[in-house]
Amino acid sequence: MPDTLDRTIRFGSNSGQPMTRRDGIAKVTGAATFTADNTPDNVLHAVYVPATIARGRVTSLDVAAAEAHPGVTHVLTPANRPHLHGDPEAKPTMFSFRIEVLQDDTVRYAGQPVAMVLGETLEAATEGARLLAPTYEMAPPRVDLDRAEPYDVEPGGFGRPTGASHGDIDAGHRAAVKSVDVTYSTAPQYHNAMETHAIVAAWDGDKLHLDVPTQALSMSCAAYASFFDIPVENVTINSPYLGGGFGSKAVPIGPNILAILAARMTGRPVKLMLTRQQMFGPTGHRGATRQRLRLGIDEDASLTVIDHDSLSETSSFDDFHEPAAGASQGLYAAGALRSVHRGARLDIGTPGAMRAPGEASGSAALECAMDEMAEAAGMDPLEFRLKNYAETEPGTGRPYSSKALRDCYLQGAERFGWAGRPLAPRQMRDENGLLTGWGMGTALFPCPMFMAEARATLRADGSALFETSAVDMGQGALTALAQIAADSLGLPVDNVEFRAGHSSLPDGGVAGGSGHTATAGGALHAAGSDVIRQLGEMAAADPASPLHGAGNASFVARHGRLYVDGDDSRSEPFADILSRAGGADLVGSGSASRPPETAAQYAMYSHGAVFAEVKVDPDLCQVQVTRLVGAFAAGRIINPKLADSQLLGGLIWGISFALHEEAHHDPVTGRIVNADFAGYHVPVNADVRGLEVLTVHEDDPHVNLLGIKGVGEIGIVGTVGAIGNAIWHATGHRIRRFPIRIEDLLKA
Ligand code: MOS
Questions:
Q1: How does pLDDT run across 41-84, given as a tens digit for each residue?
Q2: pLDDT at position 93
Q3: Helix (H/G/I), strand (E/B), else coil: 277
Q4: Among 349, 364, 389, 663, which residue is least crowded by beta carbons within 10 Å?
């Protein structure tokens, strides 16, 4: 890969290569151990009882029946639950949520744990939990967003999005010669990673050992330590592999705290694994939204205003509001921009971050509204977006750190064959008479960086070890990060051992926000550079080295040798430098985060353009997404194979959002009636046809030292709108709710 980006650092031959996952064989052969694969000696199995009502209180539990069951050892209820140091109702950090750990008999949502049974076997604990047979005093549940009382979301931390307003909104509305005023709905969605939440907790005195999948090892250690009033260094977390996270495994959940409490109470290791049904309740979800978009254009089809008002559900006891209206702030050049967030309290578990929080839901509404605006303008949707292309961040006027969105539009359109699309809907049929439509959407997602640290050890034999508590939740971090690490020392990746996924390692930060490769990768690169710097000092000071006296030069590493920068005639193998120095390991450390001044100076986003083809049966209204082409610009791509895999996964989730996923509440009890994979639909292979991903070349000198923007989330953004717009183009019907169902089209 040509290294056109390089201003401050050099990349070796590993980055840019489509390497296969290093953990792939371990995973497909079952050698990779996930939390649920750990069953320590003397373990107790925990099964909790989820509430089957959404609001009220527990009036009885048949503890005697459960305790009498063979193999049941303990029954944990609010009546006997031991003291917990941390207040589950407190919010000690801005990322904390209130959780349910049997603090009282109140039921705040269906699926809330109301008791936990421990047993010698999983079967005994399961049967014991069934025998508890709770009875309830039920209050009418509030589960309908359309009947809830909205309030203004007060900004002030995670899950309480800030509103924003730039320019004269009223003037923008008045200046419009054409406008749209539309409301789009999105449904509640639940994270359904392949691996459900699980934990194996064991105490050794006041030391706590956890096997638990987490997207954030050190943050989790701190949270668990504070709940149990032990020093953070007393908590170790082993989290080598996650079977998916999607945001749900970023913060500790109530059931995990209960399992740890149970382990302390019994003096035995405790293992808990949530069932699929239990994933609908205490583990976060993507909250439903109702988004009103008012757009206006002038004679010239330039946007005079984007006015985006998002109402989102949250729980009765905590705040997480989908930051959906924020999606309108970074994208189109409009004379005036406003984002407003309103909330409504329902008897549901607290929502949380779920893959592309904010942008996934927000762009679904925005991109459809843009399509409606283009229709009103009599313009091709792509032409309309290009007309309103933002060269600087709308509102703030800040430059983009880089923005290859125009290339995404043009290359994606070319690949898809967008030219020749009829402007009017319901013009195309395929050879089988199916209505055919083409739609598009724009994607954007911010490029956050967090904080990470890493350690690099160069060994006398020329191999290296890199360590950081990074997280591979399936995205391929163990591979992409090893590629960056190897490049920092100029070694082939096979000479690099990479340790991650354990809290004893340097803090690898958070796998979230699409920022993990940039952040942990930056730390690894810095650690490798520290080794090279030290190695250079050693060689320059050593009269026996060909590099002797080059102390003022900088050094670079290639193929296991150290070179004077710019002078290929002077070099020496690492192993020789180290062996003359006694053969000891050379250890370097590094960290990465974004300097606040860069963050303030530039607007930083990944971008993309998604083109969709759908076919709709004119009589049955069945929808098939027959083609999706996504073109994305996300800075430097470390591993094209894994990046494509992330982007394809995003496109597939876009299909899921547009056509499948929706949790339904029973209006009487408030339960989610489709809390399993029979009733909660996600796309299967038959739903996924021709998908194609292009990554557009993009050099970003500002976003971070490595030029990485991240690819974990952007694939879902834009896709939902593209599919909705394609359905309109096929049928002539605007369906303003997601998922779009057969009955919506039949009624249209
Ligand atoms: Mo993510 S929703 O930042 O794991």
A1: 999 999 999 999 999 999 999 999 999 999 999 999 999 999 99
A2: 84
A3: helix
A4: 389
Q: Would the CB of 403 count as within 6 Å of ligand 1?
A: no
Mind listing the pLDDT tens digit for each residue in 434-483? 999 999 999 999 999 999 999 999 999 989 999 999 999 999 999 999 99
**Ligand 1 contact via 247 beta carbon (within 6 Å):** yes
Could you report how far apart the first and last alpha carbons of the chain are, in Å? 51
What pLDDT does 566 receive?
86
What is the SS3 assignment for 20?
A: coil
Q: For ligand 1, what atom is nearest to the CA of residue 352?
A: 2
The three-class DSSP label of residue 657 is helix
Cβ atoms of 78 and 103 closer than 8 Å: yes
**pLDDT > 60? residue 2:** no
CA of 352 to the centre of ligand 1 (A): 9
Does residue 613 have a pLDDT over 50? yes
What is the number of the ligand 1 atom nearest to the C-alpha of 356? Answer: 2
What 3-state DSSP class applies to 130? helix
| C-alpha of 22 from chain center | 22
215 lines ligand 1 (CB under 6 A): yes
pLDDT, mean over the chain: 95
* CATH node for 399-449+594-748: 3.30.365.10
Q: Is 295 helix (H, G, I), strand (E, B) or coil?
A: strand
Best residue for ligand 1 mutational test, from 713, 714, 716 (most atoms within 8 Å of Cβ): 713
- Using alpha carbons, select from 699, 556, 558, 521 the residue that is nearest to residue 4: 699
Residue of 190, 355, 711 to mutate, ligand 1, most atoms within 8 A of C-beta: 355
CB 708 within 8 A of CB 699: no
Total Cβ atoms within 10 A of residue 120: 16
Tell how far the Cα of 711 is from the centroid of ligand 1, in angstroms. 12
Of the candidates 649, 654, 637, the one whose C-alpha atom is nearest the C-alpha of residue 726 is 654
Q: CATH 3.30.365.10 region(s) of the chain?
A: 24-32+451-591, 35-140+197-279, 399-449+594-748
Question: What 3 state SS string does 473-508 have?
Answer: CCCCHHHHHHHHHHHHCCCCHHHEEEECCECCCCCC
Q: Where are the beta strands (DSSP E) in 325-384?
A: 336-346
Q: Would the CB of 193 count as within 6 Å of ligand 1?
A: no
Residue type, 265: M
Q: How far apart are CA 405 and CA 416, in angstroms?
A: 16
Parallel, antiparallel or unpaired: strands 690-695 and 623-633: parallel
pLDDT of residue 553: 79
CATH 3.40.50.720 fits 35-140+197-279, yes or no: no
Q: Is 743 a catalytic residue?
A: no
Ligand 1 contacts CB of residue 519 (under 6 A): no
Element (H, E) at 58: strand 56-60
Q: What is the second-level CATH architecture of the domain 24-32+451-591?
A: 2-Layer Sandwich (3.30)
| Residue 6: predicted pLDDT | 37
- Interval between CA 456 and ligand 1 midpoint (Å): 27
Residue 13, pLDDT score: 84
Catalytic residue among 100, 195, 453, 713: 713
H or E, element range at 232: none
| Alpha carbon 222 to chain centroid, angstroms | 21
Omega before 88 within 30 of 0, i.e. cis: no
Query: Sign of the CA dihedral 699, 702, 708, 712?
Result: negative
Q: With beta carbons less than 8 A apart as the criterion, state whether 654 and 716 touch.
A: yes
Sign of the CA dihedral with 473 first, then 476, 482, and 485 last: negative
Ligand 1 atom nearest to 357, measured from its CA: 2
> Can you give the pLDDT at residue 95?
83
Whose CA is closest to 45, among 186, 203, 198, 178? 198
Q: What's the pLDDT at 3?
A: 33
Look up tokens 């050190």; give the residue.
Answer: 218
Element (H, E) at 727: helix 719-731
Distance CA 546, CA 489 (A): 19
